[in-house]
Specification:
By secondary structure, the protein is α+β, with helices and mostly antiparallel strands. It contains four helices and 18 strands. The longest helix is centred in the C-terminal third of the chain and has 21 residues.
């Protein structure tokens, strides 16, 4: 049975997904048709991204209209152009006075080692995911950007375990909400809050030590955990960046090792602004908690 996470309390965005269950790849799209202030923090050494420079606080554009998480490695970037097409058709974008330009950013992960290496998200799959973004109830597990996700490749790809896309939403009594949507595809393993392994390499005990990391000769960019934190709080770009930075604490708590040369770990943060400002330290801590639980959810719902 499919697993779902209801993000309905979080106003100002919708989510949609498209998957290729045979090719083991897919796309997850977060739409912000009215725009959302966003930033990104990249901690892994091998990222694949689109339009992340415009998210820097000093740059002109202050809102995005979609954040896309995709499989397919560099080819997955094509899916984001499909999202741009749908937004343009829906009259969504930055008004230049000549045309409305949809601001679409996102990141990709490497899933070519499972399913079919020739199955990659394209513009059509991006369109399907964007068109499916009509609600805030998101399916988790081996779907969307997590369709071909695996974990625990530190002792060799042949010992990897199945992973997926996870989500978690924290709704507070004062009306604020903080959610995380994460495609869990790390080089490392996933640990629970009690320190127990939730998602482990299947390598034999004789290989399970630091000297045997990358025993199969994995190369940079062949993993990567990507995700987005979405809140209804009002943020500036600088504040959104701090939220993304603090949210990586949750990633590092759940995944060990994290932020390696073999990952492109990337987290976006977006504020829809349907509620007022929120204490930034509180928001950052909640974002880290949401990311940590979303990673746990991605592993649990993929089995």
């Amino acid at each position: 049975m499919p697993n779902y996470c209801d993000l309905g309390a979080l106003e100002g965005f919708t989510c949609g997904q498209a998957s290729d269950p045979l090719g083991k790849t897919g796309v997850t799209v977060l739409r912000f048709d009215a725009g959302a202030v966003a930033a990104v923090d990249v901690r892994g050494a091998a990222p694949g991204t689109r339009e992340t420079d415009l998210l820097k606080p000093e740059n002109l554009i202050d809102k995005v209209h979609a954040i896309v998480l995709s499989g397919g490695s560099v080819w997955g970037l094509d899916a984001m152009s499909g999202v741009v097409q749908v937004l343009e058709e829906n009259d969504v974008g930055f008004d230049t006075g000549i045309a409305k330009v949809p601001i679409v950013t996102g990141a990709v992960l490497f899933d070519l080692g499972v399913g079919s290496a020739s199955a990659r998200p394209d513009m059509l799959m991006g369109r399907k995911a964007a068109e499916a973004a009509t609600a805030r109830r998101i399916e988790t597990g081996a779907v969307g950007a997590g369709c071909g996700a695996t974990l625990g490749k530190i002792y060799g790809r042949e010992y990897a375990s199945i992973s997926g896309l996870g989500a978690h939403c924290i709704a507070l009594a004062d009306g604020f909400c903080v959610a995380a949507i994460v495609a869990v595809n790390p080089y490392g393993e996933v640990f629970g809050r009690d320190g127990q392994l939730l998602g482990a390499s299947t390598a034999p005990v004789s290989l399970r030590n630091a000297e045997n990391y990358s025993a199969s000769g994995d190369f940079p960019g062949s993993n990567t955990t990507i995700g987005a934190i979405v809140t209804n709080a009002t943020l500036t770009k600088s504040e959104a960046l701090k939220v993304a930075q603090m949210a990586h604490d949750g990633l590092a708590r759940a995944i060990r090792p994290a932020h390696t040369l073999y990952d492109g770990d990337t987290l976006f943060a977006a504020g829809t602004g349907t509620h007022g400002p929120m204490n930034l330290n509180r928001l950052g801590m909640l974002a880290a908690d949401a990311v940590e639980v979303a990673i746990h959810n991605g592993v649990a719902s993929s089995h």
